[in-house]
Design a protein that fits this description.
By secondary structure, the protein is of the alpha+beta class. The protein has 3 helices and 15 strands.
C-alpha cells in the first residue's frame, strides 16, 4: 500500500482501488488516511465511488506494516465497495489540519521540557504530554511565552529519513519511553523543526510552526513522584 500521508500530509484526497472490504475495515492500494498511532487519532472521512459512498469513522493499522484499515461507520456494511472498485478517498481535512497543528505543537513542547516523555495524546484542540521531571516545577507562564515565540518565528518543519543503524547510534533522538519509533526494517522517519527539534515520528505535521496558531498551556498535573502531565490547547481551533 502507498501511504501518501507519509510524504504529503496536505493531500486531502486520492484515487485508489479497493483490495478488500468488510465491516472490520476497507483496505485500499493507496491512501491519504492516517491510521491511529503514536498518540495521534486515525483520520475520518469517506470513500466515494461511482454509485455509492461510505463514511469512514476511524482508521487503524492493518495486519501488515503497510496496510491501513479504513473502518466504516456503524450500519455501513450493506454499502461497502467490492474488491476492485475504483474509489476516491477523502479525509475530513479540517479535523486533520487541527491534528497536524497540535501534533507539531507537541514537538515544540517536547523541545522545551527536560526529561523523557512517558506518554501523550494528540487531540483536535487539546493535547498532552507526560514527562519525567524529577522534582522540577513547570513555570506555565514562561513555557507558554516561549512556545508562542517559537510559533511566531515560523520555523520550517520537514521530514527526514535515516537508516536503523544511524538511529541506534543516536539513542538520544528518541524522547518517548512508551512509544518506539516506527521502523520499516530499513529506514526511520524523522520530523525536524529547524534549529529546534529532531526526533523520530510517524505522524502528520504542518510545514511551518507559524501555522500552529496561538497556544495556551493548561493544567499541569502530578501523575506520580516524578511524572508531570502538561496539557496544551489551541487558543483558536
Amino acid at each position: 500500500m502507498v501511504q501518501i500521508f507519509r510524504e504529503d500530509a496536505y493531500a486531502p484526497s486520492c484515487a485508489a482501488r479497493v483490495e478488500h472490504a468488510d465491516e472490520a475495515g476497507i483496505i485500499l492500494d493507496r491512501t491519504v488516511f492516517y491510521p491511529m498511532g503514536g498518540g495521534q487519532p486515525g483520520d475520518t472521512g469517506r470513500l466515494v465511488w461511482d454509485g455509492g459512498s461510505v463514511p469512514i469513522a476511524d482508521t487503524r493499522k492493518g495486519d501488515t506494516p503497510e496496510a491501513v484499515r479504513h473502518v466504516p461507520a456503524d450500519g455501513s456494511g450493506s454499502v461497502l465497495p467490492p474488491a476492485g472498485t475504483p474509489v476516491t478517498a477523502e479525509i475530513d481535512w479540517e479535523r486533520r489540519y487541527r491534528l497536524m497543528r497540535m501534533h507539531t505543537a507537541l514537538h515544540l513542547l517536547c523541545s522545551l521540557v527536560p526529561g523523557a516523555v512517558t506518554g501523550g495524546q494528540v487531540g483536535e484542540t487539546k493535547s498532552r504530554l507526560d514527562f519525567n521531571i524529577a522534582g522540577d516545577q513547570v513555570d506555565k507562564d514562561a513555557l507558554e511565552r516561549t512556545l508562542n515565540e517559537l510559533v511566531a518565528a515560523d520555523h520550517t518543519v520537514r521530514v527526514r529519513w535515516i537508516d536503523d543503524a544511524e538511529l541506534d547510534s543516536q539513542p538520544d533522538l528518541v524522547r518517548t519511553m512508551s512509544v518506539q519509533p516506527p521502523r520499516d526494517g530499513a529506514t526511520v522517519r524523522l520530523i525536524e523543526i529547524a534549529d529546534i527539534d529532531l526526533q523520530p515520528c510517524g505522524g502528520t505535521h504542518v510545514a511551518r510552526t507559524g501555522e500552529i496558531g496561538r497556544l495556551r498551556v493548561g493544567k499541569v498535573e502530578s501523575k506520580g513522584k516524578q511524572n508531570r502531565r502538561i496539557n496544551l490547547h489551541l487558543d483558536a481551533a
